[in-house]
Amino acid sequence: MIIPGKYLLFLGDVADRLDAKTACGLLDWAPERCAGQWRLPSCGVDLGLEDMDFEQALAAGARTLVIGVTPFGGAIADSWIAPITAALDAGLNVASGMHRRLGTVPEIAAAAERSGASLFDVRVPGRSFPVGTGRKRTGRRMLMVGTDCAVGKKYTALAIARALTESGGKATFRATGQTGILIAGEGVPIDAIVSDFVAGAAESLSPDNDADHWDVIEGQGSLFHPAYAGVALGLLHGSQPDAIILCHAAGRTHVDGYPDFPLPELAECIEANLELARRTNPAVRCAGISVNTSALPVEERAAYLQAIGDRFGLPCFDPVATGADALVAHVAATFD
C-alpha cells in the first residue's frame, strides 16, 4: 500500500492529543509529509500546523487526507462524513486507520466514485495469515510491551530502531498499528487480525533474518488492559522476543478510559510479560524501560528516570526527551 503525496491531517472534533495520536505520530516521525491540518470548529487539538481548506492543501502539495484520530472502537463519526466527502470531491485521496472501511459509508464511496480519488484503509490486512507455529526463527526480536495503551510503544520502537541503525547495527522497525504503517510504509494492523491468527501474523511480520539483525516490533495494547489484553498476548507469543522493553506513561494511575482499573506496578508488568513470553522463547529478557515523562515538570524528569533505572538495574529512558542511545549500548553489551 503506497499512499501518495503529502498528507493533510484530519483532526475532526477530538478533545485531546491522546485521541489524535495518529496525527501526532506522523508529525513527529514523518514531518516532511505533513502539509497542514484540518479541524472542525469544536476540535480541541492544535498540532501547530497551518489550518488549510482542501484547495489550499492541494496547492501546498497534499494529495491525501489522513484521518489522524483514533476514537474508541475505530468508528467513523457521522460529523466526519461531510468533510471527508468534500475532500474527495476536491480531488484528495483519503486514508483511514479506522476499523470501519471507508467504502462502506455510502456518501464516501459515492464521492470517491465521482472524483476518481482513492480510498486507503490502512487498518485492513492486505493478506491472510496462518496460525502461529512457535518455530524459532533466525535473527533477533525486540518487542515493546506496556502498562497500558497509548504509553509510547510506537515512539519507543521508532527511537530504538533509529538509534540501532545510527550506531551501525542492523535493525528494522516493524509496524503493527495504523500510524506505524503510515510512517514505515508497511506493516500488519495486528488488532484487525482474527484472534486465531494474531500469533501467525506476528511471525510473518518478523521472519528469519541475519543473526545480528534486530526486528524492533511496535507493541499493541497491554496484558493488563480489560479490553485489549488479547492482542497483546498474541503479539507477544508470535513475536518470540529475545528482549522486551516495558513502556509506561509517568503520572498515569489507571487504564486510560477505565478508572476502575489501576495500572499494574512496573515489576508486576515486567514479570507477567516475561512469564508469558517464555512460552515461545524461554530465553527472553527485559532489556530496558521506556517512560513518557511529558506529564512531569521538566526539572523532575531526569531524577524520575534515574530512580527507575537504579531500581531495576536497567536503562530507563524517554524516547523523545533522551533518545534510546543508553538502551542500545546496554543491548550491545548484554546480548551476544
From TrEMBL:
Positions of the D-glutamate N-acetyltransferase-like N-terminal domain: 53-125
SUPFAM superfamilies in the record: P-loop containing nucleoside triphosphate hydrolases
Lineage: superkingdom: Bacteria
Short name of any one Pfam family annotated for the protein: DUF1611
InterPro entries given in the database record: DgcN-like (IPR011669), DgcN-like_C (IPR035086), DgcN-like_N (IPR035402), P-loop_NTPase (IPR027417)
Residue stretches in coiled coil: none
Matching NCBIfam families: DgcN
UniProt protein name: DUF1611 domain-containing protein
Organism: Sphingomonas colocasiae
